[in-house]
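Researcher: Structure for this, please.
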Amino acid sequence: MDALKSFLQIIVSIIAVIWSVFKSPILYTAGKITSLSARLFAWYKLLWFKVTYDKYGDFIPAKGMIMVVGTTALVLIIYAAATLVLQTGYYLATHKKEHVYLTQSEEIYPDDNIWGVRGCYTRNCDSESSLYYRIGPSLFHHIWSLSDDGNLFLPDAIGAGVPTGSTRCEVESYGIRARVLMLFHIYPRALKMVCENTAAEGAVQDLRP
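Model: Predicted structure, C-alpha cell format:
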C-alpha cells in the first residue's frame, strides 16, 4: 500500500511539473481556439439565417436542407484535407525501408479492412526483435500507391501477400515504433511488402539496422 502511495505521489509530481512548464502555451492555445470557434459559430449563424429565411422572415425548408447537406460535405472535406496533410507530414518525417522476417498476417478488423502483420529482425524471434505493422486504407495511402505503381491501395492484397512461415521481406513503412505506443494501438503503417522465399537459407541472419 505504501509503495502504491509513493508511486501515485511521483505521478502527481510529474504531472504538476509538466503542467507548470506547459500551462501558459496550453491556456493561450485553448483561448485562441475558443475565440475562433465563437467567431466561426456567429458567422455560420448569420449565414444560416441569411440563406434559409426569405425577406419576410419565413423559413424555407428546401434551402435549409441544402445548407445541412452543404455544411456536412464541407466538414467532411476539411476533415479529409487535414488528415491528408497530417499523414503526409508523418510519412515524410518517419518513412523508411527495412528488411525483416515476416511470420504472420491476419485481418484483425474486417469491417475497417485493417490487417496486422507480425515479424522479427531475426528468423528465430525473441522479445527484443519482434515487430508489428498495420495495413489500412486512407486517402494518403491511395495517393501514395497511385504514385508508386499506378494502383489503388488494397490492404487485402498486401496483407494476404505475406507468405506463411518465416519470410525475408523488404517493408516500406512509416510511423514510430515504440513499445509504450503499443498500449494505445499505435504501430508503424506498412505501405508495401516485397517478400522472397527463405526456406532454402541455411544461416540465421540478424536484420536489425
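Researcher: Any notable elements?
Model: The longest strand covers residues 96-109. Residues 26 and 83 are 22 Å apart (CA to CA).
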